[in-house]
């Protein structure tokens, strides 16, 4: 068709609601243009767009952040975020999203963020908070571009987890769900190499296909920025470089039409002609065109700058094959979209039933009416065609000089597909693979001695009063602070003393962490949960992925801020299939997050342990032992409280073995059986820590003459002078009972002592029984002991003059014991076969022989080239180092972490 007989398709009825989208990008750098190019949020006509996407947000340490100082409202001055969102006052149906990424942002930050679950969750939860606080309606991912199998897989994981979190957060807070969109390439090779199309499309609300920038100054011949169709005489490769082919590639690979939003440009790509007389498509060029008066970028003009060029007498040519115009003036050439081509594209969108159009960008249309008296000629035409908006004036009113299209001879030159450009902010200096030697003397045992400290022990009076400084930090390998609480799915304190009152009055958390100054090898952890907290808060946390992830990531921040070395999960007790599944899921997510955070922060990984029941029934009812064992560092078996004042006969609460006469059920209520049950269910012995009580369970006898195990009782024993709890005495209170004349009995079958005086009876552990328990655990090969609790031992030495007699007995008996299979390898990375691998090793796994480039982290002057699955180790030329940002060999001064390499030393 010629220019005179080009036929427009029918417009939608005026004011009709077609359900189509017009997605308008706004750039936060448009404010810095001078004169008529300056563009602010208030310049936007909010009735023309259904969605506005603010470009761009940024990412810092895998968290969503602002990019420009003007983005956020500060010191009473409204930021651009708020000013764009305020447009919804004029159009309540308008949706405003924030885009993160973009071409200048590069790919490396996305690659690193999406590479593991921890980094992704860190980003996701920062995004939720960031978007809600600023009242955005959603997030647009602009990763330019994922490439290769790993990126492809990780991008799917990212959009999947974002969508799940957005849905869960919406349900949790009873707010409209945040929208999730993605700006994606229209290049066929990039689509196939970087996107699992059906999977990505399943999770996003819509895809903003960037069907522009098909040609530009990076080529040596002219070409249109965004042709609707390819010319018949193009090479096979160049025929792919058009809107029709690129968008339909998404459709062919599985994207639903109703999620495809077609990208259009309100700018043109310009060239400087090598010969002004050769001025058609595919004419030779010598570079980009001159920078525009307002946009000031070579090879690029905003639509209103193109209008100025046409007003100066540029020749306008309509291309009947590609259905787009171009213009030239002297040696300047520009391919662009005008109202006519925009209407053709909108009709094509409607004919193909796509979701709508995306505009890059709203600030480059003729928003001031410089071309003619009509503002917004391009986006206005879109709104008329797609949304049924009333006509804003005559169509096709550009001041043009019509010229017949000149078809250049078919060129044999082809545009090369973009290389695998990978961006990174800082190359990391080579890390030594050798572990750092600890100057402290090697301990005589690698067994763990885990001591719980209770924050309520400071409430006791007299010699029972206990504070963090009363702990002997040389007796324990780990101190666990009990307990923290859970409130609104976050860790919080349970006592005012935890955090202190500020000023000179330090809190217990800080004071207990300070014990590491006396023993640098000591690990101090925080326990969350406990008997008093119960199951309900844990069930609430694990109700959905949003709550669980909120808890996990808050926990990491909390532990790092307070200086703790790890977390002890004390859910007492999960019960039933659902609880069992939830606990396993929580522990797994904690471990994955701890691993990821350590990798990102370069800090030692946070330790993960769990307090676990000794009851075989409780184990079976609530614990997926094999799954839990994969993720925890330690399992603190609570091998005590087998008997107590809830029964009406006396019994020792922590017998090592059963009585010979015990029933089959009673034989299972022992330390030996319970520890074995954890092993039988799939726990590793080296992870199992045997619970040791420093207290006794007491009874009031029904008959003072009947004192053996199994004798009748009528209630718990009398409260101790310091602990003040019925049925319970600390070891130092038991000492007082013994010194008052109580009879001490050794049970040779259960290997534990008990004592009685008048109607009071107590079963407990002393130095003798603890030595036997430690001998037993050494023979069995367990990982050490857990002590409940450090503040119930005779810490003042009131019994024998020796402080901490029970802990001391444990430590003495553990000397020389080496736990088998106990590896300090928390930072090691294993492959799917369980083999230790070097995390810096480059593994090539590219599709279809695709070529990509990778950093050699050990040598700045070398790099890796992947060709499909083949890896080549390549040197840079003399005096150069590898620049991952540009995928080229470059001068050392241009690569941050290679600046130390001089031109002479790199030769």
From TrEMBL:
UniProt keyword Ribonucleoprotein, yes or no: no
Keywords: Chitin-binding, Disulfide bond, Glycosidase, Hydrolase, Signal
GO biological process: carbohydrate metabolic process; chitin catabolic process
Location of the GH18 domain: 20-389, 447-817
Gene Ontology cellular component terms for the protein in this record: extracellular region
Residue ranges of domain Chitin-binding type-2 in the record: 841-900
Pfam annotation, one family: Glyco_hydro_18
Lineage top rank: taxon: Eukaryota
UniProt KW Methyltransferase keyword: no
Any GO MF annotation of the entry: chitinase activity
Similarity annotation: Belongs to the glycosyl hydrolase 18 family. Chitinase class II subfamily.
Protein name: Chitinase
